[in-house]
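for the writeup, i need someone to sanity check this before i put it in the appendix. the sequnce is what the collaborator sent (i think, or maybe the updated version? ugh). structure was predicted straight from it, no edits. if anything looks off just tell me and ill rerun, i have time this weekend
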Amino acid sequence: MNYQTPETLEEVYDLLESNKDAVILAGGTDLAVVMSEAADRPDTIIDITCIAELKGISEKDNGIVIGAATTIADIQVSEKVPAALSAGAAAIGSPQIR
């Protein structure tokens, strides 16, 4: 298995271009389930959790933008998200999963 940790979106694009069957990792809960089944293990995993531009919550126009690498824990405690979204995030898994 090839495990990649790009630091920029450009690196992600290049890795996806050269590894057509690559899987994006942004948390891993679902991927861990898939990988427990030997027949479905990907050849390449691209971990996007270290890409700064994919993290965070920002306000834009009349809404919010949540980056693909933003953790559920960050959503839960953010003052930028609606209370219902914060409560929903708190209901996902245990604190270790979030």
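The helical segments are 9-18, 29-35, 72-77, 83-90. The two ends are 26 Å apart (CA to CA).
thx in advance!!
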